[in-house]
């Protein structure tokens, strides 16, 4: 089978199985099997696949047809222009979350000797991206899952920033050393925010494969954020930012968790125009 034939067959197979991103998925899986990027696939379209490559491609297509996410099939996902290792132990990084990373980066670039924490780090996508893009940054990355932290450490090592990120296992900000209180410039939080009653209604490739620990945010999706806010206020320096990714329709409730005497809060929209990110600045004494 030639590369061009494999690509066409894969697209048709996934389309027949009602995979919305059939064309893209077939290309990504074929690139993974052959080690060729999209341009090379086109230039070498008349090259034959080996028997082993055909078998591997067929197995991946079968798994994708059943709903398994492409990122888990390839073991990789791009975020902020960087390649990240992903496994079923971590939530797959989403383009929407780049808004949080970009907002954090813009603030941190203005701080001398910046310090930041990434709560619910998962794959480490946010922490590692910030460390790569801001060489002077020192970070603490926290997750409840030991398996997720193992993946995050791999990604930090892959991008050679592991010496600037301290990985801690535990609940929210509890593992942070008390010496950091009042010193952090940014606390980034992409915590579970899907209401418990909506989990079963998620797309199959999310609800059936991604870790529910990284999805379920309680009754209204904001349980963990309610617990985070008071601790974040203790650890941020005056003028520091708490960044919380939320789901559509949660902006007003999220802002109500932030007492106006302690925080200046606003909600940013993502590229699709959805309210996606709560930014809360810790009010300084002079502002009160």
UniProtKB/TrEMBL annotation:
S-adenosyl-L-methionine binds at residues 120-124, 143, 190. Residues 118-245 form the Methyltransferase domain. Residues 5-75 form the Release factor glutamine methyltransferase N-terminal domain. GO terms for molecular function: peptide chain release factor N(5)-glutamine methyltransferase activity. Keywords: Methyltransferase, S-adenosyl-L-methionine, Transferase. Belongs to the protein N5-glutamine methyltransferase family. PrmC subfamily. Methylates the class 1 translation termination release factors RF1/PrfA and RF2/PrfB on the glutamine residue of the universally conserved GGQ motif. This is Release factor glutamine methyltransferase. It comes from Desulforamulus hydrothermalis Lam5 = DSM 18033.
């Amino acid at each position: 089978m030639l590369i061009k034939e494999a690509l066409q067959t894969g697209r048709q197979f996934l389309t027949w199985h009602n995979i919305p991103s059939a064309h893209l998925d077939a290309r990504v899986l074929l690139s993974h099997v052959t080690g060729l990027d999209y341009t090379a696939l086109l230039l070498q379209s008349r090259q034959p696949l080996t028997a082993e490559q055909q078998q591997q491609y067929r197995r991946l297509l079968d798994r994708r047809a059943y709903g398994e996410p492409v990122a888990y099939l390839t073991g990789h996902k791009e975020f902020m222009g960087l390649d990240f290792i992903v496994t079923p132990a971590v939530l797959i990084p989403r383009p929407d979350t780049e808004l949080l990373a970009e907002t954090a980066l813009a603030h941190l670039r203005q701080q001398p000797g910046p310090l930041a924490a990434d709560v619910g780090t998962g794959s480490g996508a946010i922490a590692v991206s910030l460390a790569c893009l801001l060489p002077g940054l020192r970070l603490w990355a926290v997750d409840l899952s030991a398996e997720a932290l193992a993946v995050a450490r791999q990604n930090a090592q892959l991008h050679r920033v592991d010496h600037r990120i301290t990985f801690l296992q535990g609940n929210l900000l509890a593992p942070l050393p008390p010496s950091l209180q009042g010193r952090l410039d940014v606390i980034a939080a992409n915590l579970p925010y899907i209401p418990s009653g909506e989990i079963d209604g998620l797309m199959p490739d999310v609800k059936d494969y991604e870790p529910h620990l990284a999805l379920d945010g309680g009754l209204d999706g904001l349980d963990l954020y309610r617990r985070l806010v008071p601790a974040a206020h203790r650890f941020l320096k005056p003028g520091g930012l708490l960044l919380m990714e939320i789901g559509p329709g949660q902006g007003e409730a999220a802002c109500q968790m932030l007492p106006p005497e302690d925080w200046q809060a606003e909600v940013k929209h993502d590229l699709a125009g959805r309210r996606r990110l709560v930014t809360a600045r810790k009010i300084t004494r002079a502002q009160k």
